[in-house]
Amino acid sequence: MGALLQSHTAPRKLIAGNWKMNGVGAALAEIEAMAAAAERLSCDLVLCPAFTLIERAAGLVRDTPVRIGAQDCHAQPAGAFTGDISADMLADAGASHVIIGHSERRMAYAEANEQVAAKALAAYRAGLTAIICVGETEAQRDAGRALDIVVAQLSASLPDGATAANTAIAYEPVWAIGTGRVPAEAQIADMHAAMRQHLSARFGMEGGQMRLLYGGSVKAANAADIFAVPHVDGALVGGASLKAADFLGIAAAA
Ligand SMILES: O=C(CO)COP(=O)(O)O
Asked: Which residue has its alpha carbon closest to ligand 1 atom 7?
């Protein structure tokens, strides 16, 4: 394990914003302000607004380092799936990334690990980078099962063919999302080390380089401490990604 962990060289950090079901056209000014500052940052920025904003957002950031992502895609390339959006449609609209398996979707739509893996494959086929989410509930952590649960989720949610280029992992403890509660740094460190060990064992060098994001109540005030944890290669940010000032404050700590 030690040798595998030591072979990891830290990649440039990725700070991704998940806007969830927030924002209409007027909110694009925030993405414009983020893009205007992005050149000066030493991390990569991805903003994932609602489907309805993707094409406009992608147009706004076209000549900047900021990238645009979606929050879900369907596993099939096309067909009779009323209300769904395919990975090809996202790519066509200008997205380069897609969040898959967020706990809010796992819970609200009963998305299972196998479905998450199928959606990730669809993302790869469309040339998108998948940000695959995993995380334990509070009851699972209290029962001492957090590491086992998350590694099992990771194992079943990642398809063969995942690489450091087409996949980032977001560890988001369900109890830390939108609550203002953040795990202790040692808890994040243990989880990210366990995820790295699993990924290195399964994917070799690619698993050693895959970016591992932390998500759940990340703010400018706690970002530097979180980014200092070994194997934390960035963040997936919810509430604090809606305003440029907040999000840029996090990015400046990376
Ligand atoms: O769910 C999250 C990002 O996907 C985290 O949300 P908050 O940053 O609002 O806690």
From this structure: 238
Which amino acids are annotated catalytic?
102, 172
Q: Give the residue-averaged pLDDT of 212-234.
A: 98
Indicate which residue's Cα is closest to atom 3 of ligand 1. Answer: 238
Q: What is the pLDDT of residues 145-157, one digit of tens each?
A: 999 999 999 999 9
DSSP string, 181-206: ----HHHHHHHHHHHHHHHHHHHTHH
Q: How far is the CA of 7 from the centre of ligand 1 (A)?
A: 30
List the residue whose alpha carbon is closest to atom 6 of ligand 1.
238
Q: What angle do CA 67, 195, 151 make, to 5 degrees?
A: 110
Asked whether the beta carbons of 188 and 152 are under 8 A apart, the reply is no
Alpha-carbon torsion 117, 118, 124, 129, what sign? negative
- Counting residues of the chain whose pLDDT is more than 90, the rounded percentage is 96
120-169: pLDDT as tens digits: 999 999 999 999 999 999 999 999 999 999 999 999 999 999 999 999 99
DSSP string, 36-86: HHHTT-SSEEEEE--HHHHHHHHHHTTTSS-EEEES--BSSSSSS-TT--B
Q: Is pLDDT above 70 for 1?
A: no
Q: What is the CATH number of domain 14-252?
A: 3.20.20.70
What's the 126 CA to ligand 1 centre distance in angstroms? 26
Q: Is 180 in the pocket of ligand 1 (CB under 6 A)?
A: no
Contacts of 40 (CB under 8 A, 6+ apart): none
Domain regions of the chain by residue span? 14-252
